[in-house]
Amino acid sequence: MFLVVGVIIGLDIKPVFGLSEKQKQIYDSGIYYYDVDICDNTAVSDNEESSGTTSGEDREYKKAGNIPEAGRDAQATVYGTNGNKDKDGKYIEYLGGIEGGSKDETGRALKGQTALAEMHGNSALGGLPYGTKIEVTYKNKSIVAKVVDNGPAGASDIDVWRQTADLLELPYGNTKVKIRAVSKSTPVTPVSGSASSDESPNEGISQGAQCCPSSGYTTGSVSGKDNREKVFNFFVSIGYKPFQAAAIVGNMMAESGVEPKKSEGIYNRKVSADEFLSGVGGPGWGIVQWTNGRKFINPTKQARKDPNKIEVQLRFLANQLAGKGPIPEKAAGDDLKKTTTIREAVLAFQGDTQAGGKHPGYERPGDQAGSVPERLRQAKKALTEFGSNGGGVAEASSEVTSTGTCAGGDSESNGATGEFSLPVDKKYFTQNKIWFTKPHHTYPASDIPVGSGTKIFAVGKGTVASMANSGWGGGAGTSVFVKDGDILYGYFHGTPGSVKVKVGDKIEAGQLLMLSDNTGNSRGPHLHFDLEYKGQKKCPQSLLKAIGEGKPVPSVKSLPGSGCVG
Q1: What is the reported pLDDT for 214?
Q2: 79: phi then psi, degrees, rounded to nearest 5
Q3: What is the pLDDT of residues 52-75, one digit of tens each?
Q4: Measured distance CA(18)–CA(52) in Å, rounded
Q5: CA atoms within 13 A of residue 362's CA, in its CB half-sphere
Q6: Which of 42, 128, 389, 517 could hold 132 in an S-S bridge, CB 3.0 to 4.6 Å?
Q7: What residues contact residue 350 under an 8 Å CB cut-off, 6+ apart?
């Protein structure tokens, strides 16, 4: 178990981190706790995990009631309605009999909130503090809501505000749902969004650990059709730019072909960690050819992890680049993150000081000049396949650069600052600019008529607030919603099962989200791109045009809310 992720459960298994005597007494009493601020930029090395001590002794823990780490069943009812629905199938508001009327316990209007009430006078779940974030799942649909209210004793554990119930399509009456506590950094699903329909957890790690993409040792997202894509998606998910992630892939291709069981000198078969320790092949082993491979394998096995797994190797490597663990490589990690071109990123990870360059590197091969062309070729190939050709981050030229285009005026929300990317391959913009600048038919948005199976990329950075991966999700169909401060990006009508991200994932501009299709309220294959600022829909046409033309990008806040309707 990685440090403290999400909820710590009061079972017979004792925690691997240090607790104060007072915290230990509370823990031993069987009360559940969760870390409310795991994002402290303190990474944990693989070998620390089994040592029984970490830097977590002084962490603050708060009561999270009686919800175990794996979650629990709960009985849910719907409030703010008498069960009647409008023509769109949404609950009609009715506030009769609600003690607090239209406001929650803090005096804020319930309307517009993804809200929950803890029943039995705020004791049904063990007395959750107001503001606790809970993931609620019903029939494989999941949303993240906030506890902001309480209710009287009754048959249910939670009362679900009508707009929250709409997201889950929760029936009126007493219904069994699954709940679990998540980190306070997990975005709440907006009432204008859609529920997640993805059933698979992120590598079995609580969502709380996904909130720190820059802290070094994080869970990341290990997903993809092959190992190359898994590496690319992992490093993008923990905060590296797409071209930097591609540079790592290019280097790994030259070192091992991105094969976790690659042993130096053995070309006809894979070599397990145990075989390597017995003397088969060497001295290099693994996806980056750790030399000697024992310096990776031994501490990993001591930490009771499987060194043969690519996800274990990736997390060990990420820890190294963050300067943590038994063999830190912080200089190489810092140097890589400063790069602005794909060639520079390849050199930063490889190292080129022996060839007269400035990069100390991570791999440091014997031939630091002759091996560059193949590493660069593989990096560009990875970026073309897994990244975006928009916004300057993935142009397949010899000098792929990061635009670093910044929008101004959104400092109060850390809004649309940083890199941007077109939501589809730049070739579509070059050939059909009108697709990106034409008016939308009924309200501020953009419809880009690409065919089914087209790769859809993130226009801006942010955190996945909600998604639907099965073709459900209401009018949006298979969809992804990404929140960045006051900004909400919406990508609609994707291919069922194609979504590459999960709720809570940190993403960067240009990251692959899903494939386009014709699901939901759609009359033909296309991408519907939605953009909101503080809940107000914005016209994205001028933003997309600026990205495509490589010009300064306007702030989302400054975009018009009208005038882009046909």
Answers
A1: 32
A2: -125, 165
A3: 222 332 233 344 678 876 678 999
A4: 7
A5: 30
A6: 128
A7: 251, 359, 361, 362, 363, 364, 365, 368, 371, 372, 375
